[in-house]
Write a structure and sequence with these properties.
elongated, five-stranded mixed beta sheet, mainly beta
Length: 174
């Protein structure tokens, strides 16, 4: 039974040397300059909210993620996290960034494999009507899939114990 393979092409990113292949040295792959940035990417949305892409992480690991949000005039310097945080994403610190904006430090526990998106809310301490949503997107790998190269601004701060039901000391019924 023959299975058809899907081809998925993305615009930009990788380009191959042009011209016919020679019998000499192997051809080279060239990467766009924007791919060399290995930092956490913060993308503002049209609605005033933000998407933060933190790259590859590993399941059952706890990470500290530091990123800078652009200046949000409504928040200014009186930003605080919402009192009801996400169970896997917790904002631990918000300070004014030296170049303007807000430097946000959060803790993230990668629980399951896949492309995950957790949400945190930033509120103003002086204006109840102000609320900025920050979505943190991570590509989480399984524990056996190797070690990801962490982006600048992301560091592993712990490994959670994995529960394995086969390690039970229960003897069963008599």
């Amino acid at each position: 039974m023959a299975a058809a393979k899907k081809s998925c092409a993305k615009a930009g990113g990788v380009r191959f040397a042009e011209g016919p292949l020679a019998a000499g040295p192997p051809s080279h792959v060239h990467f766009d300059e924007k791919l060399h940035d290995s930092v956490v990417m913060v993308t503002p949305g049209e609605d005033g909210n933000f998407m933060v892409k933190v790259g590859f992480l590993k399941t059952q690991h706890r990470y500290e993620i530091v990123f800078t949000l652009p200046d949000v005039p409504a928040l200014r310097k009186d930003a605080c996290p919402a009192p009801v945080p996400s169970p896997h994403l917790r904002i631990t610190d918000i300070t004014p960034a030296p170049g303007g904006g807000l430097k946000v430090t959060c803790e993230y526990l990668a629980q399951q494999e896949g492309v995950l998106c957790e949400e945190a809310l930033l509120l103003s301490e002086t204006n109840q009507d102000v609320c900025v949503k920050v979505q943190v997107q991570a590509r989480v790998m399984d524990r056996q899939q190797g070690t990801p190269m962490l982006l600048e601004g992301v560091r592993c701060i712990g490994v959670e114990l994995e529960y394995d039901s086969e390690q039970s000391d229960w003897q069963g019924f008599d």
